[in-house]
Amino acid sequence: MNILVLSRNAGLYSTQSIAKAAQARGHKVSIIDHLMCNIIIEKSKPQLYTGFDLMEGYDAVIPRIGASATAYGAAVIRTIESMGVFTTVKADALLKARDKLTCMQILSAAGLDVPKTGISAGDTCAGMVYDKISSDKAIVKLLASTQGLGVILTASKSQGMSVVEGFHRVNQDVLVQEFIEDAKGSDIRAFVVDGEIVGAMVRQALPGEFRSNIHRGATATIAQLSQEEREIALKATSILGLSIAGVDILRSKRGPLILEVNASPGLEGIEGTTKVDIAGKIIEFIERNKKS
Fold it and tell me: Cα–Cα distance between 9 and 67 in angstroms, integer?
């Protein structure tokens, strides 16, 4: 097969891991920056160009769309879908998962438990919204935060209100979210490919740090998932329409809570921790779909 990987940086671990896994299975791989793609919209004739060159002849596409290019990346994926080319991530699923408010709304409406979350339309009712979430500590986060950036733990309501108002001043909407203290700075990343959990790890934040992202220096060990954790991870990806996802779960006293669903999860941490060829699982997923 001729496989296209959409990635802003061809040298990233995840991009290279996928390319090597595809090549090891005898496939041809191209890597293109999706922000270099040009879209032509025409009745029954959608087209993509890289610079002046028409993009054609690909059997499958693996989008690696970062948070900084979500909207345009989704537009590129939607064009690929219109062209009838198989893509491992659908545009609508990417948009649902990437917007944290939308994701929380969809999952909670489907009966999955999440940290209690609120958002205010402005400063006037921000205090009321904060009170509905917490009387003390809370998490304030940007709607499209990634790798722990734009995520702040506030020590009190007064501090929290200052943070919320500060974000509002620069025209950024933020979520106020319940702080799950009994998680003790750890979470679970369950990696799902085509309806199967192919790897899972426990990420533990550094002492004094609440964010358990690997990019923030967290350590990782192999996770043993409970049946309930497995079920909610698979249900979350199914509800959002994702075939590939990293589902982040908090272990709380009231049971597992879905913190986030990542539509373009990194491979370095999960492959390094579990020693599972996750990239290979993604290529096998494509091979199964191309045969069907």
Answer: 14
